[in-house]
Amino acid sequence: MSPLNLLLLALALVAVPRARGACPTSAELKNADGTRVCAKLYDKSDPYYENCCGGAELAVEPGADLPYLPSNWSNTASSLVVGQRCELTVWSIRGKKGKTRKFSTGAYPRLEEYRLGIFGTWSNSISALYCRCY
Ligand SMILES: *[C@@H]1O[C@H](CO)[C@@H](O)[C@H](O)[C@H]1NC(C)=O
To answer: What pLDDT sits at residue 44?
Structure first.
């Protein structure tokens, strides 16, 4: 590896934790009473990572199986965070139809960075979900 590549790699490693912005980390993902949350969905993302995970939020309990999200959350989530040792599976069409994707533990501040088919992204495209922890 050239010195320039090593420098770029070092910069990338330093930059990653900051990329989570205002989203909580997986470890911070708990209810106010301390009980475990499997995932949280947020209706607002932003070009600036520090402003992501804003607006209304939907806390998803471990084991939650929602083939039909509440209607005002259908095609609405733009940021999400998945808790430690949890995994969130999402579908693009209500009733667990259409395309599907798994999000493992971590923060996903900008769902528009995750492609859905050729033209779409996962921002405003989650209509059903299943969340499990182990
Ligand atoms: C959907 O409605 C519920 C109940 O009124 C509210 O708490 C929640 O914030 C709403 N979701 C969005 C994305 O606005």
So the answer is: 93
